[in-house]
């Protein structure tokens, strides 16, 4: 982080241990440095939105927490446990599968594409991991899954197969499937980017409800600035592999400090405004 950073820290001022801790985390592909010595803490219940230009490293930051990419350097901890490493006789060694599996169970993930099991009903999509990963009885898993599917507004779809659902409904199943496991932290990686515009709202609204209800920490990679502003306790702006600035939504969107964030927001507002003008002229043409 550079000296432009402001904000961050424990949200309510009470001392708590972070549920997610990145320490000097770097990622390179060959000679290309994608992330550079990232330090980041996410506290229990905290909602952190990550924004930044395309290619700034947002997804890579999330994929390392999702255990899909290994950091080139640095450590990540979830709930006090190292993610990519484990300690053996006081020494840091690469984590074995069993250790990774244990830590992974603390992390829920929702991707741009839904990755549902096509041959299973919606209900079974949500119960499978409860039964086979958490060892729950089918009856108990079904009860918990039905409760969760009701929360995301899909009680009437439990016996359908994914192919019969809209993109927005599929994404709500994916959210239910992850949240039902009661993870310590939920990661949303551009959860609405693959959806038709008219379906984005229903998914964002489900995420907002979960955020308002839960003590679950959330990390949300998003291009939806309004959504980030509404949902996040803290917004992080990344650029060229670094956290350039972070703060409350008000600090980030209304009083951005660094020229890079100011330029990013002004580019974003221009595109948004142009989109609005185009939409207005299209509907005027239709009239
Ligand atoms: N497997 C890979 N091999 C080489 N380079 C990669 C790989 N994955 C990502 N990169 C590069 O890392 C950089 C950061 O990518 P990343 O997807 O994290 O950015 P992002 O901020 O999430 O972008 P977007 O908003 O477009 O999704 C990009 O320049 C990308 O080309």
TrEMBL record:
<keyword id="KW-1003">Cell membrane</keyword>
<keyword id="KW-0547">Nucleotide-binding</keyword>
<dbReference type="InterPro" id="IPR003593">
    <property type="entry name" value="AAA+_ATPase"/>
</dbReference>
<keyword id="KW-0029">Amino-acid transport</keyword>
<dbReference type="GO" id="GO:0005886">
    <property type="term" value="C:plasma membrane"/>
</dbReference>
<dbReference type="GO" id="GO:0016887">
    <property type="term" value="F:ATP hydrolysis activity"/>
</dbReference>
<dbReference type="InterPro" id="IPR017871">
    <property type="entry name" value="ABC_transporter-like_CS"/>
</dbReference>
<protein>
    <submittedName>
        <fullName>Ectoine/hydroxyectoine ABC transporter ATP-binding protein EhuA</fullName>
    </submittedName>
</protein>
<dbReference type="GO" id="GO:0005524">
    <property type="term" value="F:ATP binding"/>
</dbReference>
<dbReference type="InterPro" id="IPR014343">
    <property type="entry name" value="Ectoine_EhuA"/>
</dbReference>
<dbReference type="InterPro" id="IPR027417">
    <property type="entry name" value="P-loop_NTPase"/>
</dbReference>
<keyword id="KW-0472">Membrane</keyword>
<feature type="domain" description="ABC transporter">
    <location>
        <begin position="20"/>
        <end position="265"/>
    </location>
</feature>
<dbReference type="Pfam" id="PF00005">
    <property type="entry name" value="ABC_tran"/>
</dbReference>
<dbReference type="InterPro" id="IPR050086">
    <property type="entry name" value="MetN_ABC_transporter-like"/>
</dbReference>
<dbReference type="GO" id="GO:0015424">
    <property type="term" value="F:ABC-type amino acid transporter activity"/>
</dbReference>
<keyword id="KW-0067">ATP-binding</keyword>
<comment type="similarity">
    <text>Belongs to the ABC transporter superfamily.</text>
</comment>
<dbReference type="InterPro" id="IPR003439">
    <property type="entry name" value="ABC_transporter-like_ATP-bd"/>
</dbReference>
<keyword id="KW-0813">Transport</keyword>
<dbReference type="InterPro" id="IPR030679">
    <property type="entry name" value="ABC_ATPase_HisP-typ"/>
</dbReference>
């Amino acid at each position: 982080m550079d000296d432009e950073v402001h904000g961050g820290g424990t949200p309510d001022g009470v001392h708590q241990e972070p549920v997610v801790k990145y320490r000097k985390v770097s990622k390179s592909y060959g000679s290309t440095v994608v992330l550079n010595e990232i330090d980041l803490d996410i506290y229990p219940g905290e909602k952190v939105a990550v924004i930044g230009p395309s290619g700034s490293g947002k997804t890579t930051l999330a994929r390392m927490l999702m255990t899909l990419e290994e950091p080139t350097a640095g450590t990540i901890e979830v709930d006090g446990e190292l993610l990519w490493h484990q300690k053996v006789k006081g020494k840091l060694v690469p984590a074995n599968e069993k250790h990774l599996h244990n830590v992974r169970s603390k992390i829920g993930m929702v991707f741009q594409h839904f990755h549902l099991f096509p041959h299973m009903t919606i209900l079974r999509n949500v119960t499978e991991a409860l039964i086979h990963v958490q060892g729950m009885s089918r009856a108990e898993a079904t009860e918990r899954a039905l409760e969760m599917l009701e929360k995301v507004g899909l009680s009437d779809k439990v016996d359908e197969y994914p192919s019969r659902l809209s993109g927005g409904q599929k994404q709500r199943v994916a959210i239910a499937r992850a949240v039902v496991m009661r993870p310590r932290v939920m990661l949303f990686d551009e959860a609405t980017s693959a959806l038709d515009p008219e379906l984005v709202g229903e998914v964002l609204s489900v995420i907002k409800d979960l955020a308002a209800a839960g003590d679950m920490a959330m990390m949300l990679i998003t291009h939806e600035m309004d959504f980030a502003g509404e949902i996040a306790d803290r917004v992080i702006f990344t650029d060229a592999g670094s956290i350039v600035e972070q703060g409350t939504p008000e600090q980030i969107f209304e009083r951005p400090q660094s020229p890079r964030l100011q330029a990013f927001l002004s580019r974003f507002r221009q595109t948004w405004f142009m989109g609005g003008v185009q939409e207005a002229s299209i509907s005027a043409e239709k009239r």
